[in-house]
Design a protein that fits this description.
With 215 residues, the chain is of the alpha+beta class. The protein has a four-stranded mixed beta sheet with strand order 2-1-5-6. Helix 1 (16-32) packs across helix 9 and helix 5 crosses helix 6 (139-148). The protein has one domain: 3-Layer(aba) Sandwich (Glutaredoxin). It has helices at 16-32, 58-66, 70-86, 103-112, 118-130, 139-148, 153-160, 166-178, 201-214; strands at 3-11, 36-44, 56-57, 98-99, 186-189, 193-196.
Length: 215
């Protein structure tokens, strides 16, 4: 008998480990099918909730935030790029790129759930940022990405021009912080099992097989 799992993925768009983690998770789910299937809900997490509108140079941000050198930052970026390639995701050349606030993008992701378009929108936002060097806080870019996955551009614009879903997104962020989520990605299975970080596909597979068996 097929088992069904509920997956909540807590993540942010400028987090490279979040797309790497999803690629690993997706590989695991492919191996688990059809014995185990899953419903995925993307949950909001802002890595930089106080980031100004113009954003910040990414190398400057990383070296300041984590106390590492420019050389270490470049080394880490090369490692991340290779890890992505190993999983079939090609990061663009983000040298000289910037990092931005993503609150409005999370509002649109919350709305997209109503149309079963969350994963499509999330992946398109990852591509906007990592492959196109785009700004996920720019309203025009958010509207273009929303339309590209089949969401209503006019409705998206009305959301961005209002405070719709602000309270819901902030409450979800507070909830996940209150249960101990302080870094992303974090995958919560069936509301109680936590898999932290961008784990390899085989680890995701083993963990979900065990959880499905227990449930």
């Amino acid at each position: 008998m097929s088992k069904h799992l509920k997956l909540d993925i807590v993540s942010d768009i400028p987090c490279p480990w979040c797309i790497i983690g999803y690629q690993s998770l997706n590989q695991a789910l492919t191996k688990l099918a059809p014995d185990i299937s899953a419903d995925i809900t993307w949950q909001p997490f802002e890595l930089n909730p106080h980031m100004p509108k113009e954003g910040q140079d990414i190398t400057e941000h990383i070296t300041e935030k984590y106390g590492i050198s420019v050389e270490q930052s470049e080394h880490n970026r090369a490692m991340i790029k290779q890890r992505g390639l190993d999983l079939g995701y090609e990061f663009g050349n983000r040298g000289g790129g910037r990092i931005y606030n993503t609150f409005n993008a999370h509002r649109l992701l919350h709305w997209a759930k109503e149309y079963d378009k969350q994963t499509e929108l999330k992946l398109a936002l990852f591509d906007l940022y990592f492959k196109q060097n785009g700004n996920p806080s720019d309203h025009q870019k958010l509207l273009e990405v929303s339309q590209s996955v089949g969401l209503d551009k006019v409705k998206a614009q009305k959301i961005l021009e209002s405070n719709k879903y602000e309270q819901e997104v902030r409450e979800l962020q507070r909830h996940y912080q209150s249960v101990g989520i302080s870094s992303v990605p974090a995958v919560i299975v069936n509301n109680k099992h936590l898999i932290s970080g961008a784990q390899p596909a085989d680890l995701f597979e083993q963990a979900m097989r065990k959880i499905a068996k227990e449930s």
